[in-house]
Design goal:
The complex is a heterodimer of chains A (421) and B (376). Chain A is an all-alpha fold. Helix content of chain A is 72%, strand content 3%. Chain A contains 18 helices and four strands. In chain A, the strands form two sheets. Chain A has a two-stranded antiparallel sheet. Chain A has a two-stranded antiparallel ribbon with strand order 2-3. In chain A, 47% of the residues are buried. With 376 residues, chain B is mainly alpha-helical. Chain B folds into two domains: 13-182 and 221-368, Orthogonal Bundle (ABC transporter involved in vitamin B12 uptake, BtuC); 183-220, no CATH class. In chain B, strand 2 (183-188) and strand 3 form a beta hairpin. Chain B is globular and about 70 Å long. The chains are: A mainly alpha (421), B mainly alpha (376).
């Protein structure tokens, strides 16, 4: 039986309903905000390079059936602790790149330890992982505050007095990396390259890969064909922007957009890692445990161990993600930078169309783009529509919480439904 | 004796044991660093009674099998709406307090009913879903506070839109319950003597002794205590009633309750509704004692200390008694009240008490969650 076009359309709409809704909301909010495309794009690119890594760090626990890992905030704390250590000794060789690498190196063992502990705890709260991971994050935040407000300066000596409170005990509320580590990952900003050049390189790579496939198999699937068409049009569009003046000024301005190349490479590497790990034995174990713990246990998988590994990987990645996030901002809000990252990362992933049991790289990237578009324009939209930017700000917080609540609720409902039926 | 000791330090009773020990330790320390004990005790008493009603809201939620009510902000929002409407009308005193509660309750009934219906659709994930439901409602209402058509000048910003973040209740129903039949001792600065006042407001004392010539050192908030224990008693009566017993049966063992003809889903809705109503009354009581209404993001995390309090009292996510509320709120609020001045004596900088609260509060909730998994 041949499916008609309207059937296909219906299927497509149902499958991507969340994404479509957010595309509509974000577009409307952008139009209402009366901001220029250039402003939106430049803000958005910054946020994509900052936040994608964190959002991508959520994928593996989802695969292992542990839901959305709200405890990535613990990883973020490890990242911040590492940055404090690096700032303390003022290490920033290779234009800061060395300092950031060192911070990542220092963060890893901490994050591994915290990840194992979190994983052990979540093994004792099976079925309630998400609320437990959220509360363990809040708990860890208390411990974090205790260490950095009362132990640092007393129990641990600090060399760099600039990051201490005047009393000598406790860290300052905000620590500026400024000259030392800001954009360290991109050698102090040296490797920020025009965004459309990156797009051109990417599309050439995609075209070459597909052509290579064609050369081997002598045929292309529909997906590969459309991939080539999209890549070619992106390539042409980027080239037109970079090297000609055919577009109106609004669009031509986009030429000066830049993107930190090394951060981009890190994000791409994590996407690759997420794809490759599914193919490994460990990845298969994740999926087996995620689908059914009992069956996985019967087939000889150490379920608890696999779950701990999943959370540990996620925690380490979150630590690195937070380091990437902070080195781009250049300022660390010692007691605030990490608090909201779990909510926002989870919300972004869900906006991208992920669910509690299924999340992909695409969900993460699309989600970051849509969620942060809304985040950037909603205060302006609130100001234009209601004369009060605050309304827009509260609206975006509402969207973040609401989308989490709604998708968790719908998922629980569906599970209940299938279990009954 | 040994068995008793073992019972007291195991399972859901462990947090109570640890916090009691801690509480006693802080009491001893307060004595050692010479902080006036009477002031601490009266502060504890006030905070115990003003938080008590909010903690009480956890009881029906846990008893009906929903677990601790992480969506407490829903009821809180209802109570705050009732309060601001009363404020707008300019009705003060006990009439204002009564009206605030009266307006809040029907709203809480509707919201609680809807919330209960929703929870029946997400059985097994109540805790995380209700947390985010509460968060969403608080952020949605933050927009509501801005666009609400209320005009009272003491409640709105002189410039710009919306209600203030903090609304002073002095000229409305602030401290009504606290001062009712209260016993206050004020120290007169000049002579150093204690003077007793019965059923008097702070304003009365200040007018009598202008320029802070007398400072209230000790207060027994009789009205507040009576109100709290009255709420406890009403809930106790409900628990003993037929429908109350059915509700508890539905929470205890849903399958068994269903077999004996109890509509479990309806009982869960009932539990959610009662919990929301108590929360709405609870925030009115809390605000009148605190002296301010706190709007916008303030209710966001209010569920957590209430949950921690009942868990410290010995409740679990499946079982709760009114006794747990009383003992838990007293221990938790007492510890917080005492630890602040003690910590400040020991460490001048920073707010150690706040950090302590975060660690204790979330540690206790986490401990209770590990017990959920253990019983599956």
């Amino acid at each position: 039986m041949k499916t008609t076009f309207s059937d296909q359309l219906k299927k497509f709409l149902l499958k991507n309903i969340v994404v479509i809704v957010f595309v509509v909301i974000s577009t409307l909010a952008f139009i209402a905000s009366k901001q220029s495309l250039y402003f939106l794009m430049s803000q958005l690119l910054e946020r994509i390079s900052r936040n994608s890594f964190l959002v991508l760090s959520l994928l593996i626990p989802v695969m292992a059936g542990m839901g959305l890992n709200f405890s990535i905030i613990i990883g973020a704390m490890a990242g911040q602790a590492a940055l404090v250590i690096v700032t303390n000794y003022q290490i920033s060789f290779w234009n800061g790149f060395g300092g950031i690498m060192l911070a990542m190196l220092i963060a890893a063992p901490m994050a591994i330890l915290f990840g194992i502990l979190t994983g052990m705890l979540l093994n004792r709260t099976k079925g309630q992982e998400m609320i437990a991971s959220m509360i363990v994050g809040l708990f860890a935040n208390g411990v974090y505050q205790f260490i950095f407000l009362f132990a640092v300066g007393g129990l641990f000596t600090i060399r760099n007095k600039d990051i201490l409170l005047t009393s000598g005990i406790g860290l300052r509320n905000s620590i500026t990396f400024a000259e030392t580590l800001k954009f360290g990952l991109d050698f102090g900003g040296a490797t920020k390259v025009p965004f459309f050049n990156i797009l051109m390189v990417l599309s050439v790579i995609v075209i070459l890969v597909y052509l290579g496939m064609f050369a081997m198999k002598k045929q292309l699937t529909a997906k590969q064909k459309s991939g080539i068409i999209v890549s070619v049009s992106v390539l042409v569009f980027s080239a037109l922007i970079m090297y000609t003046n055919v577009f109106p000024l609004q669009v031509r301005m986009l030429k000066s957009l830049t993107f930190p190349a090394v951060s981009g490479l890190f994000i791409a590497a994590l996407c690759g890692f997420n794809m490759i790990i599914i193919k490994t034995k460990l990845g298969q174990d994740f999926r087996a445990v995620g689908q059914n713990q009992h069956i996985a246990a019967v087939s000889g998988i150490n379920v608890n161990r696999v779950r701990i590994i999943a959370i540990t990987i996620s925690t380490v990645l979150a630590a690195w993600g937070q380091i990437i996030f902070l080195q781009e901002i250049g300022v660390m809000n010692t007691f605030g930078s990490h608090v909201q990252i779990a909510q926002f990362s989870v919300a972004a992933l869900l906006v991208g169309g992920a669910t509690v049991s299924k999340a992909t790289n695409n969900n993460a990237i699309v989600g970051v783009i849509l969620f942060h578009t809304l985040f950037i324009v909603s205060p302006f939209a609130g100001k234009e529509l209601f004369g009060d930017p605050q309304i827009g700000e509260f609206f975006r917080t509402f969207v973040a919480y609401g989308v989490i609540g709604l998708s968790l609720g719908l998922y629980a409902w569906k599970t209940l439904f299938t279990n009954k039926g | 004796m040994n068995k008793f000791l073992k019972n007291m330090t195991s399972g859901a009773n462990l947090p109570r044991f640890i916090i009691s020990t801690f509480f006693l330790l802080v009491c001893v320390m307060a004595f050692v660093v010479k902080i006036p004990f009477t002031t601490l005790m009266s502060d504890t008493l006030v905070r115990f009674a003003m938080n008590g009603v909010l903690v009480l809201a956890m009881v029906p939620s846990i008893q009906s099998g929903l677990g601790p009510n992480f969506a407490l902000p829903i009821g809180i929002i209802a109570g705050l709406i009732g309060s601001v409407i009363t404020f707008e009308f300019g009705i003060t005193g006990f009439a204002g307090l009564g009206l605030a509660i009266l307006i809040s309750i029907p709203m809480a009934l509707i919201l609680g009913y809807l919330y209960g219906k929703m929870l029946n659709k997400v059985k097994g994930s109540e805790l995380i879903v209700s947390t985010y439901t509460g968060f969403s409602i608080v952020s949605l209402m933050s927009i509501g506070w801005i666009i609400m058509p209320l005009r009272h000048p003491e409640m709105t910003w002189p410039l710009g839109k919306g209600l203030r973040n903090i609304i002073l209740l002095d000229n409305s129903f602030g401290k009504m319950l606290n001062d009712f039949l209260s016993l206050k001792y004020a120290r007169v600065a000049e002579t150093g003597n204690l003077v007793a006042f019965f059923n008097r407001t702070d304003k009365f004392i200040m007018d009598l002794y202008p320029n802070n010539a007398a400072v209230v050192e000790f207060i027994i908030p009789t009205g507040l205590l009576i109100f709290f224990f009255l709420c406890c008693y009403v809930l106790y009566l409900f628990n003993r009633s037929k429908i109350g017993m059915e509700m508890r049966a539905a929470g205890d063992n849903p399958k068994f309750a269903l077999a004996s003809g109890i509509n479990v889903d309806q009982m869960r809705i009932l539990g959610a509704t009662i919990s929301t109503v108590i929360a709405s009354v609870g925030i009115v009581v809390f605000s009148q004692s605190y002296g301010y209404l706190q709007l916008y993001q303030a209710p966001l995390f209010m569920a957590f200390p209430a949950i921690a309090a009942i868990l410290i009292g010995g409740a679990s996510t499946q079982k709760a008694k009114i006794f747990h509320v009383i003992i838990g709120t007293f221990l938790f609020q007492g510890l917080l009240t005492m630890s602040l001045p003690v910590a400040n004596k020991l460490i001048v900088e920073g707010n150690l008490s706040e950090v302590l609260r975060m660690i204790i509060q979330n540690g206790v909730i986490l401990y209770a969650l590990t017990k959920v998994g253990g019983q599956e």
